[in-house]
Amino acid sequence: MAMAGSAVGLGNIWRFPYIVGEYGGAAFILVYIVSTIILSLPVFLSEALIGRRSRSNTFGAMDALAPGSGWKWVGLVTVISPLVLLSYYSVVGGWSVEYLFKSLAFDFTGVPDEELSGVFGNFISSIWTPVVMHTVFLLMVGGIILGGVKKGIERFSKITMPILFVLIVVITGYSVSLPGSGDGVRYLLKPDWSRLSIEAVAAAIGQSFYSLSLGVGSILTYASYVRRDENLVASSAGTAVSDLLFAILAGFAIMPAVFAAGIAPGSGPGLVFETLPFIFNKMGGAIPFVGAVVAILFFLTILVAALTSAISMMEVGVAYLCEEKGMSRFAATSVLFAVIWAVGTLCSLSFGPLSGLKIFGCTLFEFFDKLCSNFLMVLGGLLFTIFVGWRMSREDVRDEITSGGRYSVRIFPVLWFLIRYAAPVAVIIIFVTNLII
Predict the structure, then answer these.
(1) pTM for the whole thing?
(2) Strand, helix or coil for residue 110
(3) What percent of the chain has pLDDT over 90?
């Protein structure tokens, strides 16, 4: 559940719908599904295998499995990557906190549509409120982390993941029933191959990496806590399927509502927060209080999804500082909180006072998003598969995948081929493509 929670997050509910909107609906989704099964799953398995085999954090894992080599510095890179990712991810987490508060105050019911249209833009361009909500979200993440692995992370994930699934199913059912939602459903089901460019394929694979939290050490760190008798292949496949299912459900929850509201599907990062209040307002007009209740449930869903992924990102750095530097869990969490908060605050302000500050033509928020999804995560995934496929022995990999012979994994030759040859080649192509486009 914790691994699934790490994968299922804002990448599914917030990022997937607007990326699908930017790159063409059904054709993009098909590439996304294929890349998850053929490419991302072997990378996920490689990362999990390193974690459980080493029983260590990302830095210590490489040093334990390849002592005396330079591979430990690869591990250090994957300690830093999730902290960069969390710095802007927590900003979006703060948006979900704010919108949950707004829904609890019934701000999305009985309001003229023209008033709703400017709410999101006014909110993110302000100075203090987004920063405060970003801070509240990080405090929640830190609180769960301080609870430890069993009492904090695992208990939270066991309770919230089933609730999360039920909530998104309910919201999907209502979204596809809205007047005008049929165009959104067709957008998700009828491929437009003319829009499937090289850039779209690269974006689909990047989204698959982002959604599964690959290449940043989150899966490796969680897997280091997994028991030896667990079926690693089943756990990895189950996580990938859960992530795929949740992303597609999120697409059907959001995109039909986007078309029903008359909003452009390629509206960008604010798509979910701009679209859903319109829907909740309509629901409230039809049946009193229903819109308010569903709004509360939906933004609670987004917040829970954000938290389950965010705790996995911070846990990577916490595990490193505790195991390698001898820090207490409280001290490690406090240090990381301060660093992530500072960088995240700058990202938050890039929608307002710092909107004119550009890096390669991108705002700070856009820069960190592209840096993580197109480069750091892809590079991390490549290095993990190369390490498993070329640095570890075939016998050790088989031993870990079969849990010491407890499970008969008949597709091991296929998995070995994907990890050793297919995945690295494909990831290199995508990495180079991201550098060019």
Answers:
(1) 0.84
(2) coil
(3) 32
